[in-house]
Write a structure and sequence with these properties.
Largest sheet: 8 strands, antiparallel, barrel
Helix content: 25-40%
Order of helices and strands: HEEHEEHEEEHEEEEHHHE
Shape: globular
Mean pLDDT: 89
Structural class: alpha+beta
Low-confidence stretches: none
Distance between the termini: 18 Å
Number of strands: 12
């Protein structure tokens, strides 16, 4: 569910930022990086975008400055990747197939977070979300040591993303909202209403204008895994004790913005 009024204000705020194109983004891939996540509401995001003006570019793809994504996470029947995250294991991995809805390009990606909290992402392009092929199977086996036929599509999400780049081009900020989940095992769906997930991606501890803005807005770091939170919201039978405090904090934040998680059975 999304509020068209506030979404329109967010769009206009992004349009006011200086643009940067995809070709200009090539030098800022940050495939080996540190990630810091923050969670806030759409109302606070509007303030953040105003404060970012003069410090950040907004990525444009053609005429669009807000992109649409679809991601399918793969896991074992006993949710091995989810359980590793739930238990705080490191290194840990995620296997996902991401489609950039504006270009319809699809990539098979494996994210690995090590015990130093650095994230490495490897990916290959695939024809579509349902066709990973032998190259995809070899890619998964080589990097996870788990055969692709032991994995299955577990959770899908769809969301909208704003991408900001600081003027020094040393960091990237992704801002995700209107996240919708669908669980393939339980056939349940859920949405995050007013929630906004911000992720700061940078190679090391380079100076970051956004950190000062976040402090001024009293937005504290808060880990948020779309795969794990989406699984908790759509599968009541899975082990989730370690995520309950985070889920309670997120729920309080959403209620402050007069939003709520929306969960339902899909017929």
């Amino acid at each position: 569910m999304c509020d068209e009024n506030i979404d329109g204000l967010i769009l206009r705020s992004v349009e006011r930022l200086a643009p940067i194109t995809l070709p200009e983004m090539k030098s800022i891939k940050l495939m080996n990086r540190t990630d810091t996540k923050f969670v806030t509401s759409k109302a606070v995001l509007l303030r953040l975008l105003g404060m970012a003006d003069g410090h950040y570019y907004a990525q444009h793809i053609g005429e669009a400055c807000i992109s649409k994504y679809r991601t399918i996470y793969w896991d074992t029947d006993d949710y091995f990747f989810y359980t590793c995250h739930h238990c705080g294991h490191a290194p840990r991995q995620k296997v996902r197939v991401r489609t950039y809805m504006d270009s319809l390009e699809t990539f098979l990606e494996i994210k690995t977070k090590n015990n130093k909290k650095r994230t490495k992402k490897k990916r290959i392009q695939v024809p579509d979300p349902d066709t990973l092929g032998q190259e995809g199977a070899d890619f998964v086996l080589e990097r996870t040591h788990i055969a692709l036929d032991r994995l299955h599509p577990a959770l899908q999400n769809r969301f909208e993303r704003i991408t900001l780049v600081n003027y020094g081009k040393t960091e990237r900020l992704t801002i995700d909202f209107n996240v919708e989940f669908r669980n393939f095992d339980t056939n349940r769906e859920s949405g995050t209403a007013d929630l906004v997930i911000i992720e700061l991606k940078r190679d090391g501890n380079v100076p970051s204008p956004i950190l000062d803005i976040l402090r001024r807005l009293r937005i504290e770091p808060s880990g948020f895994s779309k795969y794990c939170i989406g699984t908790v919201l759509t599968n009541s039978t899975i082990r989730q004790n370690n995520f309950k405090p985070k889920l309670q904090n997120i729920t309080r934040l959403i209620h402050k913005g007069n939003g709520r998680f929306v969960s339902k059975n899909k017929e």
